[in-house]
Amino acid sequence: MKKIRNWIRYIVIIVFNLFFMFLFQSYINLILLIGLLLFPVYSIYAVKKVAEKLSVEIKAPMEAMEKKSEFYIRFLLHNPTFFPLVNATIVMDAENAFYLEKGSHTLNVPIRAKKDTEVSYPIVMDYCGRLIVSVKEIVLVDLLGIYEVTIPLSETRECLVFPTGQSRNREVGQIYIHGVSEAMESKEKGYDFSEVSGIREYVPGDKLQNIHWKLSVKKDELMVKERISVSAMQLIVLVELANDEEMRLESVLELAEGVTKSLVAQNLPFTIYYYSSNIGGLKECYIGNEVEREQWIEMVLYDLSYKDFGRVEQVFSEQVSAESTYLYIGYDPGIRESENVIYGAQQTVAVLRGNTI
């Protein structure tokens, strides 16, 4: 419809020019008439040539971004021809693959002749996830707006958007000591601590395997067993990836980010489990440093959320152990206040659970 209106306007201009040319017998109007008749030919030809040679490239940040922080997706349009275009429309899709949410956007840009045109598109993600930006097509319109060409494209780029979580160093340290000491008691029943030849305060650099967890709980500071070799024990962490209409999973991931970051900052290793929708079962990750922690977050964001709250605990109990002590990070509206609980937003918690608690 818009193209028809543009054609009508252009024909009206030609008619008026013809009227004044015959009225005033003007050579200027004659020259103008020739130009008006030839210009549509040039305009349409220009669009066709640009459509043959134009290439589009998407550039996205290589490193992970944080949610609610602005970053840019850049579109590079390479036009090797001598013809500029005033109006090109990029039709793109933006999808959060973790939550399976998708939307379409259009971006109008001019195209310069014999040059690259780069356009920056600002994005602020309210939710973490895996952002996939794909260009479906680009629509080229000639200078008069009377002719257009649609070029199908399949350019795609993705960017990870990490959750942001508040540091929980003090709370995490207490829960870690409680969780590991309980795990050791449940696994090493009847262990005789009188065999230990010496106990002293923890010094940075000591192996975590030699920490006397039960005594550390009583003294409220880390104590180390000397010349005694015990099997390494790590805290087990279960993260619930269930979601609902209120997007509670965002609060779970924020809490998990803060808790796991605090564990790594204090050099406290742990093993984390989550239910993977991609494989239909539990995924297990040992985390001892920040690199491994970030790799775990990437694995989660390449997975999918699900609907059933409590699934990770149920599957862990069935497939791994029904006896273990673990730190559950998820949604629990009815939990009572305790030293073994860290509270997050939207009634999300990190709570120590197990038969010995």
Notes on the protein architecture:
- With 357 residues, the protein is α+β, with helices and mostly antiparallel strands.
- 32% of the residues lie in helices and 34% in strands.
- It has helices spanning 2-24, 27-53, 169-187, 213-219, 248-265, 290-301, 311-319, and strands spanning 55-59, 65-66, 70-79, 85-96, 101-111, 115-124, 129-141, 148-162, 198-201, 223-226, 235-239, 270-276, 281-287, 326-331, 341-343, 348-353.
- Strands 13-12-11-14-16-15 form a 6-stranded mixed sheet, sandwiched between helices. Strands 2-8-7-4-5 form a 5-stranded mixed sheet.
- Strand 4 and strand 5 (101-111) form a beta hairpin.
- Helix 1 (2-24) runs antiparallel to helix 2.
- It is elongated and about 115 Å long.
- The termini are far apart.
- The relative contact order is 0.11.
Helix-strand string:
HHEEEEEEEEHEHEEHEEHHEEE
Contiguous low-pLDDT stretches (5 residues minimum) are: 185-197, 227-232
Number of strand segments: 16
Mean pLDDT: 86
